[in-house]
Amino acid sequence: MQLAVAMTSTRDLENLLRQSVEGNTDAFEQLYNATSAKLFGIVLRILRNRAHSEDALQDIYVRIWQKAGDFEPGRASIITWMATIARNRAIDIVRRQRPEADIEDADIDTLISSGSAFDQMAVADEMRQLEYCLNNLEDDRQQIVKLAYLEGWSRAELAERFAQPVGTIKTWLHRSLRQLKECLGT
Fold this sequence. Notes:
Elements: H1 10-21, H2 25-47, H3 50-67, H4 78-97, H5 108-111, H6 117-135, H7 139-150, H8 155-162, H9 166-184
């Protein structure tokens, strides 16, 4: 089977995912071929280890296969949805292994970039909105959210860093995420 590399439009990817939900393994293989380099880049940037990233990528596609029916095109672009699954899996691995992961704020804009100009604009708009909403959080809450969700810090590590009980950190994260969700309108 040969995949047309140009098949990267949002509509094409959504169609391949829809076919995958119906059990079409060829469509899923095409989806993998069209998106794996991008997702690998996201995972590699977070894990900073090629072998671990390759292993994680296989697990990520198993999750994408399992969650394919959950994708809602109106909520986010397919590449953003897939990138979120990849990013979350990589962060889970970081939390388990706890290597030093330095994800700079500037890297946020490149974590979920897309191949098409339309997707790039959509992701840029989403990132601007997220940045705006993050900036509306109190400074320490903003930092806690970034450390927890971008660098994979545990609640215990955050509690130690901010000299607060774990329960307080949990509450701050919960409230901050609720505030972000309200700001983002989701």
